[in-house]
Specification:
single chain, 2 helices, 0% strand, rod-shaped
Length: 103
């Protein structure tokens, strides 16, 4: 974010060099143009910060939704197993065990 602001400031500063043969008003014009550019960069930074905050809030909402949905899925799976007369798998089982083939 900071690099973006610095890059924008350098970009704007590089284009502000003008030749004024009389030397009258060039400092005032340059300063006004630089202040205008600075306000533009500051506005862009504020908008970026607001957008970042909105995105972070959305991410937190998605995380909460995911946790809620995962809990509901686990609860529903347990209910289905109870209804079907199946006991829940052991906590340390990664897959169902199969009996060894008989020779």
């Amino acid at each position: 974010m900071r690099a973006l602001a610095i890059g924008a400031a350098l970009l704007f500063a590089g284009g502000s060099v003008r030749a004024d043969p009389d030397g009258v008003g060039s400092k005032t014009d340059d300063k006004a143009a630089q202040e205008t550019r600075l306000r533009g960069v500051e506005d862009t930074m504020r908008a970026s910060d607001e957008q970042r905050r909105r995105i972070e809030a959305d991410i937190e909402t998605y995380r909460a939704d995911r946790a809620r949905l995962n809990a509901a899925l686990i609860d529903t799976t347990a209910k289905c197993r109870r209804r079907n007369g199946k006991s829940p798998p052991p906590a340390n089982a990664s897959r169902p065990s199969t009996p060894a083939p008989t020779p």
